Structures are given as structure tokens and as C-alpha cells.
Amino acid sequence: MARHGRHPPPARLRWCPTPPTKCGGSDGVTYAGRRRLNPAPPGPYTWTDLSGNANYPGDSVCGVAISAAGNDAWVKVLTTEGEVWETECATQGQNFTCNNPWVQLTTPS
Questions:
Q1: Of the four listed, 3, 8, 39, 64, which is most buried by Cβ atoms within 10 Å?
Q2: Lowest model confidence (mean pLDDT) among 2-6, 54-58, 73-77, 103-107
Q3: Is the preceding omega at residue 42 within 30 degrees of 0, hence cis?
Q4: Residue 12 is assigned to a structural domain of this protein
């Protein structure tokens, strides 16, 4: 589900800036967003809800991060139980495709 506009997802959003891609979480839902940077001024974010992907850890998500390299991006979430989960996305051009299942990573100790 994509969300269009200049306004981010609902309140209690946690930001992880990596322009032109951002991510945030709110009320157990995790979003990733992408926007064009050229021509100036930058365009509005198009938000993608990642909480519907298989194996999403649910309402316990309390932190979000995103990293990108080339045409790939990885969104990681931290749960209140200390678990770390990740999903991989494709970011070719203005396309942002995130439909891979969430995979649990090694829990920090």
C-alpha cells in the first residue's frame, strides 16, 4: 500500500534519514518512503507500508533503520524484545519495491 503526499505517516514516527529514501514506524506499522530529488525542489514522499510483508514482527516494533547500496535497500526493525528483523527492497530509479518477507537476524547481545 503506497501513501502519497508531503505528510509522513501518523504520529510517533521515528525517522532514519537517507535521502531520497526514508523510513519510519508508528503504532506497529513500518513505512519506507522514496521521492525524487531532481529537478529541485524535491518531490513529495511516496510511502510504502511494509507491515503487510510476510513474517512482520508486529506491534512490538519500536525502531526502524534503512540502508541502501546500488539498486537495493534493506529496512531493519528492532522490537521491544530486542529482536532485529530485516526485509530487502529494490530501488531502481524512482521504483521502490518492497515485497520480500521479513527475516529475523541475530539478536544483539
A1: 64
A2: 2-6
A3: no
A4: yes
